[in-house]
# Entry
Amino acid sequence: MPLHPQAQEYVALYPSDLGADLATLDLATIRELRAHDGLAAHRGPLTHLPFVRDEEAEGVPIRIYRADRGDGALPVVVYFHGGGWVFGSVKRNDALGRDLAIRTGAVVVSVDYRLAPEHAFPAAADDAWTVVRDLFARPAFYQSNGAVAVLGDSAGGNLAAVAAWQARDAGLTLAHQVLVYPALDLAMDTPSYREFATGFGLDAEEMAWFAHQYSRDADPGDPRLSPHRLPSLGGLAPATVVTAECDVLRDDGERYGERLAAAGVPAEVRRFEGAVHGFFGLPGLFDQAIEARAYVAGRLCEALAKAAP
# Structure
């Protein structure tokens, strides 16, 4: 299927994710890029909420959103932003955090995990797990009713998937996991990596650069890096997997969804035809972002309602 017209316009302006010579990206340049968000105007409005508060979970910075004015217990959605483990922040994804709180009616906890290359693997995964573990340890602090889901996009989808199997292994029951075009296998050898290697917003070479900044000399087969390498997916939280058709990471998400279903885990995979990587975070550019958010919120609301005590 050809690119969606809005995706065509996007890749004409941004044919690659970083738009830079990878060889020139030293730490100083990376920090400069972090400070400038050229897509800020397209991330959606900063809708006023009655409750937005910056806190910490065992030293990990988080931002907590709540869309209602009450103080009763609610379900919680933990959100891990994308950015290749190198870019992104709670601040950059503030509009999405607010939107998720409104759409789901849940408390949303957005995680400012440590970034590479300053903090290589397993720093981000450790921070993600720290926040999920803290949610179960201190439900009253988060005004949680005990129903907890994780959601992440791209590198954040990787962290959400890792946290989901760590929760399973720790005996903590997640209501749901939502993985939006997740990076799940650092082998990067699927057909979608070859088909969409360049010119579709996130180049295969760029993805390899991101992975290297985070993983360094770690074993790419470590399931904390590549959740697809986890030997058994049985008993994981029910899942929603969102993929973009024209994305190097498409097959990562779809193969993982197939494995989850084969392991007996309720899993629904939805591919957005003609879409490119990153669309979910840019409702100002992609109508499909609004459609995908409504779909994800519906799946979360259903799962969280079932899990509520």
Observations:
- The two ends are 44 Å apart (CA to CA).
